[in-house]
Each structure stands twice: as structure tokens, then as C-alpha cells.
Amino acid sequence: MANFLEAEAAQKYKNAENATRPYAKTIIERSGIAAHLNSGAEANVLDFACGTGVMVQELYDTIPKKNWGQLKVLGTDISPPMLKFLKARGEKQGWMGLETKVVDGNVDFTQALPKSSFTHIFTTFALNMLPEQTLSHLYSLLRPGGFIAVATWSAMPWHSLLTRSIALLNTPQPYSPSHKELQETFCGPWAAGSYVVQQLKAVGLQQVDTSTQTEGVRAGAPKDFMGSMQFPLQFVVKTWWEEERDGILEELSDAMKGIVEEETGEDGEMEMEFDGVVGWGWKSG
Fold this sequence. Notes:
There is one protein chain. This protein is α/β, with parallel strands linked by helices. The chain folds into 2 domains: 1-154 and 192-219 and 272-285, Rossmann fold, CATH 3.40.50; 157-182 and 220-269. Helix 4 links the parallel strand 1 and strand 2 (71-77). The chain has a 7-stranded mixed sheet, sandwiched between helices. The protein contains 11 helices and 7 strands. The longest helix has 19 residues, at 222-240. It has helices at 9-14, 17-31, 33-38, 54-62, 80-93, 134-140, 159-167, 179-186, 193-202, 222-240, 248-264, and strands at residues 43-48, 71-77, 98-102, 118-124, 142-153, 206-218, 271-282. Helix 2 (17-31) crosses helix 4 (54-62). Keywords: Methyltransferase, Transferase. GO terms for molecular function: methyltransferase activity. Pfam families: Methyltransf_25.
């Protein structure tokens, strides 16, 4: 989805943590990792498709600093700029045990990572963009008794904003996808909690459960909000508008920014309501 490899990707995507962090918090709570470390055990964590590291931030914020020495964390992503951002973030905050590694989730990554080695594996808002076998590959990396958690979107809260923005474009106006089309494209079957449960059980996880969350989010000032919106807007253009005129992405971005500024003011904050699913389970042993 979009170009996560460009140098500015991390700065644009960082603002999206306003939406994703509440789900990261749920995952850390459900994992029981704080109690696991308090018992004197060690944890070897994989944050797969980690992006700018919102899961890692929530993890280190939750774990008492006295227990950081028991913690090893590997953040993997296809995007070197994202990993560079995460590494700098960790160095600034003094996170012990953090490493990063470029891993392409679109191929068999099990040769690049040690099997049966991680106590906890997290992957958030990525499975809908990755091959069907991704979850089974992650399962093979999990130790017996280990924990996997995933988070997925259920809806695209910016659909009405997209529709209004398209209506402002010069004629001929490009196709305006419905919310159902956006959901199918950006979420796929992962939008349904029942599907998440089915997939977690299918790979062999036990004690599988899910929770659905609706979160009111401050999505940033217009400039920041539009920075993070470049990824989905690029995908809209690629999916439905490949034959459209040059510069259509810029036209759309300008139209949307104008609507946001009219509603919030240049220095105000965009507010949106996000819906997502968190699913988790344990490997026997």
C-alpha cells in the first residue's frame, strides 16, 4: 500500500499513531507481558510490520524500567525509513534490548527469522496487505506457550471526507468508491471479528479471543492529518484511477485539505472515530 519506502514515509506515518495506539494498548494488556516479566521470566518480542514503532512505544511505556533488562524486542518492516525512525526513537528513550531488521512480509520470511524463538508476536494493521500464509509463518516463529496478537481495521472513517473531496474536483470527476468498496480493499475479510477468530484458530492457536474497539481520535492539525492520509489516497489512485489525468492525487489532496481546514481551522485538530478488531491466542505448550 503506497510507498512506505520513501525517505519521508516515517514522518508522514507517525501521525497515524494517534489512531493505532489505543489498539496497541489493548494488545499489551491482553498479552500479560508485564506480569510475565515481573515473575522473573524473560520475553523475546517480535513486532512484525512495525512501522514507526507504536507497539514498541506502548510496550516500553508499560514495562517498568527495572524490567527492561529481561526484554528483547525485534522490530521488522519492509521500510528502512520506518526502522531508522524506530531505532532513533529507541536510542533517544534508552530502550534496552531493541533491534531492527528489514524483513519483507510479502515473501517467505521464516528463513530470515529464528523459528520457535519468540515469546510474544504482535502485528497491527498489516495482515490485510500481506499474503494469506503470513499468520502461519508467524506461528512457526512462536515458542510453545507463546502469544500472538493482531489488530485490523473494521471500517474506513474517512470515506465521507473522500466522497466530499472527489465532488470538488474538476470535471470529469473520477470514480468515487463506496464505503463497502473501501472496506473490501483496505480491510478485506479481516474487518470481521469472526474471520479473525477463524484465522487464529486455523494456524493452531488456542484460547483465541477478540475484542472490538471504537476510538475517538484526535487525528492532528490539517497539515499532519493530510500527511498521514497520503498513504490511503495513493492507494485510492492506484486502485481506481490509474487511467486518470496526471496530478489527480495533488488535486484530491488539496480538495481534502481545504475541507479539513474549513472544519477545523488551520491550527485546529481533525477528529475521527475509528473501528477496529484486536485478536489474540496462545500456542500450546
